[in-house]
Amino acid sequence: NAGVTQTPKFRVLKTGQSMTLLCAQDMNHEYMYWYRQDPGMGLRLIHYSVGEGTTAKGEVPDGYNVSRLKKQNFLLGLESAAPSQTSVYFCASSWGTDTQYFGPGTRLTVL
Amino acid sequence: AQSVTQPDIHITVSEGASLELRCNYSYGATPYLFWYVQSPGQGLQLLLKYFSGDTLVQGIKGFEAEFKRSQSSFNLRKPSVHWSDAAEYFCAVGPSSGGSYIPTFGRGTSLIVHP
């Protein structure tokens, strides 16, 4: 039982490049979330999903897109990376309103 | 809209001393309340949660928290801090049944433990 895994762990991009972050969970959770964490800002919700095939915007969705084609996977895409998207990205999953389980994070640097 | 305030950005304690981390929330209904801990370079892990019932809840690693509705608070406590407790602590308000699905996190309190 791996819990929540994130791929990759680290990535460096140049401005304008695109990439996809993959989140996978093996707990059969309906809800999945993408957060970014910046110093002094806590966790900010980017997008979330309440089930396969559904997505919704969070607090800071601009510049990101997501897809939930399979229940166990939640993808976060950056179409044209900007330095302001340098951050640590966390994926989480949960059974509805209960405890969120977090992945180990992806550290992204945009030059 | 719901909100969570953690008034202390940093707290420094000596090993063996007691600890209290403050959390205040704003929520229109009965909240679900959580405390998470984040060790350096890792994701968040649940310490404890409150949904209903006894307002004093016990968690892992010797932590406890008390829900006080009249003060809109859910403060985290530990009687004796260990050096391994040095980490970032986040309070969160969970979405209530039938409400928004979006949980809200505080900005976190960084705990520094002196030997």
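Chain A touches chain B at residues 4, 31, 40-43, 45, 48, 50, 56, 58, 90, 92, 97-100, 102-105 (CB under 8 Å).
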